[in-house]
Specification:
heterodimer, A: 418 residues, mainly beta, four-stranded mixed beta sheet, 3 helices, globular, B: 13-stranded antiparallel beta sheet
């Protein structure tokens, strides 16, 4: 199998690595010396299987929601004499369910430092904001399918094809992105995950993506600095919702449901600082959107290491519609509705941090939907780790987590780092 | 991401310095007569964390179980003393193992309050603060806790000079530290080298008055320093071990390529450097 060959090759190379900063095997060193640039290749091999546990299956579906082998390559190359750096992070994968080989380009960019300014062009994964699994000012697309299926947490984030500029100074730091090609959230496809569609009964189902026009270029800006021992950020975003909304073609007896991505502006702020041996996080944002509705988002979190190797975090996240009722002649279905959640993350490390037990749970007191993610990870050696976890959904079908009710899964992953 | 807490290899030890200034002196001087226990520990703490205005080292940590299986962490450590006080800044960048390669930590340490700490996770390009406690948090699963490495506030313990004793080839003060409020240990014995004020050995006792952990300074080398044009050589602990006596697990820390007083730009200790660490300092 492909994976086994990679495993053997990586093991040979990996074991020969010196305790230096990845000097590599003699072959790697010879190759490196011959090239006029510094090349680094690292990555991992990952095998994962995700099985359904509720007995429900999507039509034509499979007891498995995911079964993949992935080979990740993280490549960085920089001319030895200095200059722009090239970074490429991508996966080659084999999808056992679809019986297909695929590639997943995570990041690919060229970056150059010019004094206090860094300029970068290509696909970037960017993470903003201070929330735990709830996002206000992180306006970048998410891959909920990968995350719910049990792929490592980094797969929750999707890269954006963009021009990125960061500027740093004593007075103010800035992170700016211009994203001409819109990337939207990746939700589980109906063949893999049961997902609720409030307009499923309509005969015509359409999808509409934002057009690739220069005038539709998304813009995101973050300004940040340290203020009185706190990390303070201000955010601005002008672009589109990452999650789709549904629009009926008419109010009375609609026949067509169109999935589309309305325009969106976000103005926000966040703060994070030490407090009483822990870290407090606050974030807010105003989602300015004609369709479906504008809303306020608020987040407050606190995290503390309660005893050695045990960290507990508590978080409140709320979405509040800016107008009390949606406009009665709106064709857009405001779904899922604005919701509030209380969430907790508990993490216990054991045996010199070789075992990680973690539990993430989010519950909405108002709409009663919930999501639970328990997980156990065992680091067998420095290179090999195994994890077992689950995604458990519940609540009314018309809510963000409840719409996946029936798609509860258990997953097992094995990972080899090289 | 397994790293909950941070611990900083603050620094190979410097020579003694006389008086209460925070500046590390370069040449060993004979200790003045009749130092009190508190003064000895104060000298030891000052010498331990503040040698050189800046420091750069490649650090190799080996976590060894009682059966001999080893896990290895390799990182680059950069430190600067903030002029005009006792504040310090640290930047750590991990080279190994693979699952944390490229992870970086930043810490701003203050003598009178909890350290500000940030982590950079390269897979998602994210900088976050981390919640960790100096007294409870273990660094990457090692036997070292923050306090063992980055310092415990001098005022938290009561000190008694028990005796003077020769340990190996070094004349040492043997000082007992007893925490004023419940801590990870009930008492600690330190063998502090009279000439260099390096701690040569430390024993940590648990609630049953059994030795729980033992620290030893295994190898000492002179490292060149050049503070404000004054050249000197600072005896530096380049190999140290912390052993958990009860579990048999031990952590061996080796410093390679230690340099003092390198011209580190101050913006290395900022969020920008976490996202984009200056490669020339990471070799």
């Amino acid at each position: 199998m492909l994976a086994l060959c990679f495993l053997q090759a990586a093991a040979t190379g990996a074991d020969a690595q010196s305790s230096g900063s990845g000097a590599g095997t003699p072959l790697q060193q010879t190759v490196a010396a011959a090239l006029p640039f510094d090349l680094n290749v690292h990555g991992f091999l990952l095998g994962i299987g995700t099985g359904r546990v509720t007995g429900e299956q999507p039509p034509g579906g499979n007891p498995f929601a995911l079964g993949e082998e992935r080979a990740r390559f993280n490549v960085t190359a920089e001319p030895s004499s200095g200059g722009p750096e090239v970074v490429i992070k991508g996966d080659l994968l084999y999808d056992n369910i679809g019986n297909a080989v695929d590639d997943d380009l995570r990041e690919a960019y060229v970056t150059r430092s010019l004094g206090p300014l860094d300029v970068s062009v290509g696909r970037h994964i960017v993470t903003w904001g201070v929330g735990d699994l709830f996002f206000i000012n992180d306006v970048f697309p998410k891959d909920w399918y990968s995350y719910f299926s049990g792929l490592p947490m980094e797969y929750l984030k999707l890269g954006v094809d963009s021009l990125r500029m960061t500027y740093s100074s004593q007075v103010m730091n800035a992170d700016f992105l211009a994203i001409p090609f819109v990337t939207s959230d990746n939700f589980p496809p109906p063949s893999r995950f049961l997902m609720f569609n409030p307009l499923a009964t309509l005969p015509n189902q359409r999808q509409s993506e934002p057009a690739t026009r220069l005038s539709d270029t998304e813009v995101a800006l973050r300004l940040y600095r340290n203020v009185m021992d706190s990390d303070v950020s201000l955010y601005f975003y002008n672009g589109f919702w990452n999650e789709p909304f549904l629009e009926r073609n008419r109010l009375i007896s609609p026949t067509t449901a169109t999935q589309f991505y309305p325009r969106l502006r976000v103005y926000g702020a966040s703060m994070q600082r030490n407090l009483f041996d822990g870290v407090v996080s606050l974030e807010t944002g105003y989602y300015d959107s004609a369709e479906p509705n504008s809303e306020w988002r608020l987040l407050a979190g606190y995290q503390r290491e309660v005893w050695q190797d045990f960290t507990a975090g508590l978080q409140f996240y709320g979405e509040f519609a800016a107008h009390s009722k949606p406009s009665p002649d709106s064709l857009v279905v405001a779904y899922p509705p604005a919701d509030q959640f209380i969430s907790t993350r508990l993490t216990q490390l054991l045996d010199y941090q070789t075992w990680t037990l973690s539990l993430f749970a989010a519950y909405s007191p108002g709409h009663r939907d919930y999501f639970v993610r328990p997980m156990v990870t065992y680091q067998a050696t420095d290179r090999l780790s195994v994890y077992l976890g689950a995604s458990i959904f519940g609540g009314p079908k018309s809510t963000f987590f409840g719409e996946f009710d029936g798609s509860d899964v258990v997953f097992l992953g094995v990972r080899f780092d090289y | 991401m397994k790293i909950l807490g941070l611990s900083f290899f603050v620094g190979p030890l410097a020579l003694l310095f006389v008086g209460t200034t925070a500046l590390a002196q370069s040449a060993p001087k004979p200790a003045p007569a009749a130092l009190s226990a508190t003064q000895i520990i104060e000298h030891e703490q000052q010498a331990f964390y503040y040698p050189g205005a800046t420091m750069k080292a490649k650090v190799i940590m080996e976590l060894v179980t009682d059966t001999g299986s080893t896990r290895t962490r390799v990182l680059t450590l950069l430190r600067e003393n903030v002029p005009g006080g006792l504040d310090q800044k640290y930047f750590l960048y991990f080279h190994q193992p693979g699952d944390i390669r490229g992870t970086a930590f930043l810490a701003w340490k203050y003598p009178d309050r909890e350290t500000d700490r940030w982590i950079f996770i390269p897979a998602v390009n994210m900088v976050r603060r981390i919640a960790a406690s100096d007294s409870r948090s273990s660094f990457v699963g090692s036997d070292f806790m923050y306090e063992d490495i980055s310092g415990r506030n001098l005022d938290k313990d009561d000190y008694t000079l028990l005796r003077e004793e020769k340990l190996g080839d070094a004349e040492c003060y043997v000082v007992q530290s007893v925490p004023k409020t419940p801590a990870e240990y009930t008492r600690k014995l330190s063998w502090v080298d009279k000439r260099t004020f390096l701690p040569r050995k430390e024993e940590y006792y648990d609630a049953q008055n059994q030795v729980a952990r033992v620290f030893t300074a295994d190898e000492i080398q002179n490292v060149a320093a050049d503070e404000r044009g004054t050249k000197s050589a600072i005896p530096t602990v380049v190999k140290r071990t912390m052993k958990n006596v009860q579990s048999g697990h031990r952590t061996v820390v080796t410093y390679q390529n230690v340099e003092y007083d390198v011209e580190l730009p101050d913006d290395i200790f900022t969020e920008r450097a976490l996202h984009n660490p200056p490669q020339r300092w990471l070799e």
